Fold each of these.
Amino acid sequence: MVPSEDAAPQLDVDQILADPGVRIVVCCGAGGVGKTTTAAALALRAAEHHGRRTVVLTIDPARRLAQSLGLTELDNTPRQVKGIDVEASGGELHAMMLDMKRTFDDVVLQHTDPAKAAEIFANPFYQAMSSTFAGTQEYMAMEKLGQLHARGEWDLIVVDTPPSRSALDFLDAPARLSRFLDGRMLRLLLAPARSGGRSMFSLVTASFGMFSKVVQKVLGAQLLTDLSGFVAALDSMFGGFRQRAEQTYRILQARETAFLLVAAPEPDAVREAAYFAGRLREEKMPLAGLVLNRVHRPVVPELDAEQSGAAAERLAELGGHEATADVLRAHAALARQAVREQQVAARFTEAFPAVPAVSVTAQPADVHDVDGLRTIGAAIGRS
């Protein structure tokens, strides 16, 4: 994608935000490209300009979203954003940040009785898994998205994902969960719980001999006991985990979802965007377009770097025109940067020429309030 108007089909973000058939917008991209800001700007625009009851969910625990929306904090419950201009449109804006442990706890409470839930919460393996295990965050993000979607309270859900390889984990969560649940080790651990309640330790020792001793040595007897208890306690819930994750995955493939790639005109960011676009295509997920942030454009584009540089040197030779020469040199540097950005971003268009795109000019300062989000939203929406 090149930041020129004819480089790729023009992305009409306002059409996406206004479409009542689109209920989920997922923003994906590398870290540091303005993805969180883009998600917040889109959600704000959907509420203010298109009258939609919108919630923006961030999975990446960044405080920027709360600060830019004028909230002191975000947590696992949607909080309404006050002081925005929705009087004419009738829309609403809410924001939240995923708390993976609280989401996991809520799932346990919803699908077990209080006594079983207390047993699960007390299990050391559950305490570790629900807070720190790799993959738990992404799976719980799927759970939270599924919950928000199922409640039916929102016209639009905007999801701000972690940096793109983590966002790929977000997509892979159902498959990884299925592999875990169907794995050989898990079946071994579940066997005692399904065999009359004898301790996992004695059953495995009797059945597998040397294998159990190796497992004990690697994991430790207490950890193995904790793991066995955790698996037994969650056994009845596993089918529901998998079913809900797969259902959310199907929602992400549906017409009601629109994926937006967010990138900056930098090699790593564009490479990540292309990688993600390829995965979305493989998974048959609806890629709506690319938002290219922080694009630099010369004020006088018809004056190229070579011309302005030569003019600056000529004025320096003549003397007495230092300020003008400095301006010309600055213009030359900006023009060279713009060309470099076009060359880098063109790699995406060459690989995905049919993907619509829109570019957003670099802002003079970081976005830190609602007015800044409106500026970004207007630049993306182009209306």
Amino acid sequence: MKKIDIIKSFLLCSLTVFTIGCSEDYFDVNTPSNTAPLEDLRMQDLIAPVMHSTLEGQRSAELSFGNYVQNFVTTGGGAAGQTSASGLWTQVYLYVLPNLEAVKVKAAETGATHIDAIADILIAANIGIATDSWDNIPYSEAAQGPDNNFAAFDTQEQIYTEVFGLLDDAIAKLSAADNSGFSLGSSDLIYGGDTDKWLRAAYSLKARYQLHLVNKGIVTPAEVLATVENGFTSNADNFAMYYDEKNINPWYSEEILARRTGNLSKDIASQIVSSMNGDYYPFLGGLVEIDPRLPLFAENNDEAEYKGFVSGGGGIAPDGTDANTRFREDGFYTSVDSPLMLITYAEVLFIKAEAAFLANGGTETSVGSSATAYTAYMDGVAASMDMYGVDGADYLADGAIAVGEGALSLHHIMKEKYIHNFLNPETFVDYRRYDFSDDVFTGLEIRSEVESADTEFPGQWFRRANYPDTELTRNEANVLANQQTPVTPVWWDE
């Protein structure tokens, strides 16, 4: 996997900065004084920091929503409150879209159609997570910079049309030859210039976004299945960016180093732990005591049991005893050289399993499905075990997982997707798509302690982020015209 040179990335970030609804003075303040003129920069120079910021934006979203989906809680079980997800907004609008606008100009000038396609995929991924977070967002007027200080917001429906258009255009370009002589090579922090993998990534992301619209009735499960057949084929295709000892992983920096110095860190929440330690899905074969992936996520002070923290519960587990799980110091996501991931092969298989389950007439509570759904589900679990580097043979054979085609339910598929996508903000989409159903996500509940975190919306799940205060200051009229309460569903969730 490609290691990243973060120092280079930060030096090159924000080379062509724009933002939404601000004065020309803003651009003077936020343009680095030591950056090279745009005309002197190569596409490779511009796109490397974009890839870095894209993955950092994903992590920013997870920092905002990971508490909502009960992956983690603040130290001692602190409850989730409203969020503006401002870190994601900054990455998308200050660091990603402006550089990609410049890349696309240079790609058009040189006929570099494959680089142009990669830029389209990155734009789609960034505006996709942005609209899933805030609903309506600036896009069509966003690139006008100082020429339009008060950019209008596009609706989520319009943004989804753009996402699919960008991905379809990228697929067409990557499926054809590029004779320009330009390639990203080592500047490609994700795939090292392998355009075949970028093509599979475009299909995989398209299937993800199509799945979001199935319950809306706009996309059929059959359409998702047709797309996913062209997606990732192994864990070698995972959209991942790896860190190294010189440029350390941000989860390691924030959770492990912070804990060592006594600063605020996070504990692992009860929902993810109880989905993996046998509480919600008791193991049946006698050979499995816990999901073998759990020790890669959490450590428990060498105690006999893993007991996750109840959000807002003051340090207790669901059974009322002391919780004990925190981020593992050398875990899969919390080591110095751990990756950040956008979408993986196992997720693609779970997308296929869910789409096949729904195509077979499955519902939130139905039992039994097709061979396609069951095979994709089991293959997804196996791919997850392989990605995390654990021996999953006993787990895969246990009757709690190997339920058989006739006993497969949606909650089996979504439980495994939830576990696999630990620390991936896509889980917040899944929770909303199924209305935070405990039929689909076994054991899920909004606890009284969580309600007290925001007394304005007692007993209601948060479904979107608030727009950042900085955007409210710069573009007040448009923000106020689009702002909804944090418990108001986004368009595809209505």
Amino acid sequence: MSSFWNIWIWVLTLGSLVGCFLLLRWCLNDHTGVKEGESMGHSFDGIEELNNPLPKWWSTFFLCTIVWAFGYLSLYGLGGWGGLLGWKSSNQGILSLAESKAKTVASLAEGSAFLVQYDREMAQADAKYGPIFAAYAARSIEDLATDEQALKVGQRIFIQNCSQCHGSDAHGTTGFPNLADKDWLYGGSPATIKESIMNGRKSSGMMAWLGALGGEQGVKEVAAYVISLSGRSVDPELAKAGQGKFALCAGCHGTEGKGNIALGAPNLTDNIWLYGGSKRVIEESIRNGRAGVMPAWKDILGEEKVHLVSAYVYSLSQD
């Protein structure tokens, strides 16, 4: 840390603490010119303001927090000073997750205690629960999908890591697939689900078709045809014009619009929509394109936990 930032932190931190103390001290003195307990001459709605001091319990606790702050800084340091205990973060100076993991591996190999608390807790958890996850991993996903206890574990891992996008009930939301139905972009077999979670998915992407379709009219025509594929009512003239232009889309979605799991191209005939099925949203998808990315979880959860999550996700579509 440079001298400038070291001084900056010292001035801001200590200045704030001293300022709080001086403010508290000033507020404890009577600067009103009115005797304590007497009226301040203000009243509203029958309530009269009296010159009462701050509550003793409040001002005492305020002072205690200031004293505690000085004590904490004295023990653990401030800025570039390490404090009386000489404490420092075990990951101090590390700038990336890769560096952090490398340091952890090196410390474990050396038998060093120089590990962050998270690493220690993970090591303890692996020692305790590792054999349990290994036993689950030795069973097939189909078998685990019928094991109530295994599904509870898989559901808990799912909620902790996947629910932010797919929802706690796995029903998804706009742009994030519903995992509880039987509609799959890349296929719903146990092996495919596990592959999706392990390695993530980065769709080939749907390009923006505004220019290729000749402008807004072309977008409206193709949108009308796409909507008609799922049995909804549209302007027949627009849909007929859009059918011919849909040939540009058939490379991914197929000539009948039933999609292609190899590319992750959705089925357009089932009235299930990832980004929404309104006329406006479908036109927006055609006009501007779409690109979805799901991160890989193999390095975060590990294969054994992914195996359990896969079983849980697979079970959702089997009901």
Amino acid sequence: MLPKLRAVAAQWTVVVPVAAFVVLVLTWKRDLPGWGVGLVACFLAGAVLAAVHHAEVIAHRVGEPFGSLVLAVAVTVIEVALIVTLMADGGDKAATLARDTVFAAVMITCNGILGLCILVGALKYRVAVFNAEGTGAALACVGTLATLSLVLPTFTTSSPGPQFSTTQLAFAAVASLLLYGLFVATLTVRHRDYFLPVTEEGEVLDEDDHAHPPTTRAALAGLGLLGVALVSVVGLAKAVSPTIESAVYSAGLPSSVVGVVIAMLVLLPETIAALRAALRNRVQTSMNLALGSALASIGLTIPAVALATVWLSGPLVLGLGPSHLVLLALTVVVGTLTVIPRRATPLQGAVHLAVLAAYVVLAVNP
């Protein structure tokens, strides 16, 4: 009996996605009691962790920087599906959900994940080193996409409030998708070496020496289980979302906190993956994960939400408020000053984390 239990424990990444999918089928469109919500939340957390594990298996097989791209896209698929499903059920109260979730993802990735990985890497190895060409290009894309999608709606006059007109929304969606596509092409084809880890002397590390890559069969199995885990995550998150919203509103917190909670839930496993890379002195991989996820969050979410407005009712508010505009500008400036020297100390990591802390405080108490 004990060997069987050990075998099950060793294969939790296989068992959990399948079990989570079964729970999804059993609980779909049902009112859940408190214990049921708790059970669903446990399987949701397990499915998220399993999804990232299988994404890492695939990433290890295809190599860096393709691995970071797999993780970023996998996480963003979860985020996009959550946003669209919650907007479909939320009506007018979900008008700002896409904006809040995307902005939360940008702040968490560009300040939280990036700052934490710099801090950990610099504390362990004295300085955190990375490739400024690739990181700077990614940061420039993040700043441009965030401005086109989240800043401009605040200042346009064609529609009342911080909203895009239909033409403006279509332009923002197409521009986001094209810029993200160009970034992926740069990352994977033309300038792949710009996104590879480097030594303190600037030498590119093209090989991942911490483990042997999995077989093709294992990678394909991981791809299938990744799909099962992602479907389970989306469905189970939809089941617990009313409880999250009720808890936020009962506590008297702003509705934007719902977006923060969703972003933190989705990005937690990716944060763990980035920290693992930083502890191996692969801070460039951490940068790829953080900035790549921010880019995917905007570049894929905005087109998906724009397409969803064809059948979704209610307004779509994308423009940021004054305090968030200041935080976004500060994030871009601080990120630029961090990237230029090609290396960072614990101070730079602490500065990014301070910006994230300011964002969380203002989200709870605007």
